[in-house]
Amino acid sequence: MTAFTRRDLLALLLVLTVAALLRFQQSDVVEYFHDDAMLSTLALELVSGGRFPFTGILSSTGIPNAPASVYLLAIPFSLNADPQFAIHFIMLLNTSGVGLLWLLARWQFGARIALLAAMTYALNPWAILFSRKIWAQELHTPLILLGILLAVYGFWKERDRQRNRTARVIAQCLSLPILSFGVQIHFAALALLPAMALMILRGRRQIIRPAFALSAVLALLVVLPYAAGLSQTLEADPDRISDAARRASDDGLGLSAKPLQDVVFLASGYGMETWLAPDQQDSLAELMPALRPLSLMLLIPLFLGAIACYKRKKWWGVVLLLWAFLPALLLVINWTPSYIHYFIPTIPALAMLTGLGIDFTLTRSEGRRFAAAAIALFVFVAWMLQTISWQVALSYVAEQHVAYPGFTAPLRSLNPLRDRLRHEQDVVVISAGMSWNLHHEAAVWDTLLWRDVACVRALRDDGYAVFPDHAFAVVIAPDARADPVRNLYRSATPELFPMREGGAVYVVHRWESAPPWNGIAASSIPAARFDNGVQLTGYGLADDQVLLSWRLPERQVGRDYQFSAQLFDKDGGRLSQFDATFWHGRHWCAGDRLYTWGTLPAPAEADLLKVAMYRLGEGKKRGQFFNAEVLDEMGNAKGQSVDIRL
Fold first, then answer.
1. Which residue blocks in 130-208 are alpha helix, DSSP H?
2. What are phi and psi of 524, to 5 degrees?
3. What is the reported pLDDT for 252?
4. Which of 237, 246, 383, 501 is most buried, by the most CB atoms less than 10 A from its CB?
């Protein structure tokens, strides 16, 4: 859309090469934890035709995120189900963002500032860190940059307006929907809306009405899926937003300096240990270069750049200041918890202001070679300190165990176990929980083994045991209790898969057939079928425990039930009751045998055992119960419990 010299193209090639080398470096040293796995699951289900999401995963406030990140991730996952491929896609996307920043700065401020701003962005350790994994917050910045770039070209570029009319029409048509899509990816990006609105206001005289009208319509269409999804959520749970607001205000409003500290870190590349290893900050900081605090001196050109930009181009000065600082200023009043990743979209603006400040000092030192050389040396040293700090941090998290919530086990550590499990037909993962949206092991392994293993099941470490009808592997995750599932699945020849040095260990046991049951003996009954396809096939009562045996149907994502076992005397009086969460439908595999057990005192006068399945109401139906029907041989409902005479 504009002519570049050979020197411009070489500069662009340089910044893209630097950005790519740092972002793709050791590309398997990336986190693959809970949010990553949940987003991957939604994207894989979308491209597999399972379901089309109208919301994304839940945010920390309890309000569902928009599905935009899922739609974007569907691109790499439609080509390859391996999460590593999607991670490379994200790295490439963020590398292109460095090029977009260079182009934006080149248009507005010239070649030298473009090079300085883009190199500052390419080398920033925080920008590199937040360009490398499947996380919604790491997807939106390149799209926001592209939307701003199109807005600048469509609404601000005035030279040769008639000759470039077609290009300006295209830019105006695409700018609003791309910005709308990018901002939806994470709520924190909403803080950029004032800057974007100001850009449109500034270019109102350049608006081509049909193009702008189409752009507005496309932007509404981009928002429509989330509007529908949020509407469905609020229809089911009208208090979702008010509850989130109440929780945010429970501790009262106050002032917090943390958002401003986060801006300092993001602008200077300092403080990575606070995020990567919050409980081991001293250990990581000791490995950093001794001169690392010098990178904080980049705050000086940042400050000078803010002044220089405002004086040089007033409108751009206001836009850049809003872009760089408004998100943090909005959270100085701590109406919601603040995290540094909320401010990822501001890093390009901080880099551009820093580039403007470096250029400002170089311009003022023209004719004084010593001063110019000193400034250039300072910038080079600051960049090198940032680069070395990133290398040290990357090596540390790759090799050393880091306690949660620090940098979790990277894909490099998980890959040997994944490669081992790829040869299995069925896998059972035993961990502390089975909830896809609460427990990371339940989400991680299903996606890592998506097209390699027929059925991956996440099993809680007590109260449940599952037996496939053929050979299978059992993985005992590090967060499982010391004696999971009564030690039922422990074999004589376990395989150990340690993570990083001093870290957790996964243990694999392989079974050619189901191990012998070591709990309460089960008495068989004629199979009783519920309308969800689950069959009750037996029961056992002993030592104040109840055992129920089941036969499972095919996987049912989102069909999660409770079950109850109740004992009654001959007169119909209830003597005792046991209720628990049934094994989640996401983990069901056709033909599997399932055992569940729990505490149920059985007095001598007990005469009848009633077993039922039900679902709990949510939102405005909270507190209600919806029973599964028991079916007769013809498939007709005959009651809401299986009644077993003792």
1. 140-151, 165-184, 193-202
2. -75, 150
3. 63
4. 383
Residue with tokens 């299903």: 446
HSE of 528, CA atoms in CB hemisphere, 13 A: 22
| b/e map 41-71, b = 16+ CB within 10 Å | bbbbbbeeeeeebbbbbeeebebbbbbbbbb
Q: Which residue has the tokens 């605090």?
A: 293
Q: How far is CA 274 from the centre of its chain?
A: 20
Residue spans of the chain under pLDDT 70: 1-2, 157-163, 245, 247-252
Cβ neighbors of 404 (< 8 A, separation 6 or more) are: none
Take residue 612 and report the two structure tokens written for it. Answer: 């039922």
And the tokens for 179?
């910005």
**What pLDDT shows up at residue 1?**
45
Q: Are 610 and 569 in contact (CB under 8 A)?
A: no
Give the number of other CB atoms < 10 A from CB of residue 410. Answer: 23
Phi, psi of 185 (to 5 degrees): -60, -35
Neighbours of 94 (CB within 10 A): 24
- Residue 58 gets which letter from DSSP? B
For 58, list phi and psi in degrees, rounded to 5.
-65, 140
pLDDT of residue 158: 59
Tell me the C-alpha distance between 354 and 434, whole Å: 47
Reading the block at residue 163, the tokens are 């000759």
**208, 168 in Cβ contact below 8 A?**
yes
CATH classification (class only), 523-645? mainly beta
Q: Which helix (H) or strand (E) holds 610?
A: strand 608-616
Kindly report whether the peptide bond that precedes residue 327 is cis, defined as omega within 30 degrees of 0: no
pLDDT at 238: 84
- Is 348 in contact with 319 (CB distance < 8 Å)? no
Laid out side by side, the sheet with 495-498 consists of 455-460, 426-431, 472-476, 505-511, 495-498
What pLDDT was estimated at residue 266?
Answer: 97
**Which residue, among 421, 502, 416, 420, has the nearest Cα to 457 in the 3D structure?**
421
Tell me the two tokens of residue 582.
Answer: 């049934």
Contact 203, 171 (CB under 8 A): no
Q: Which two tokens stand for residue 536?
A: 């009750």
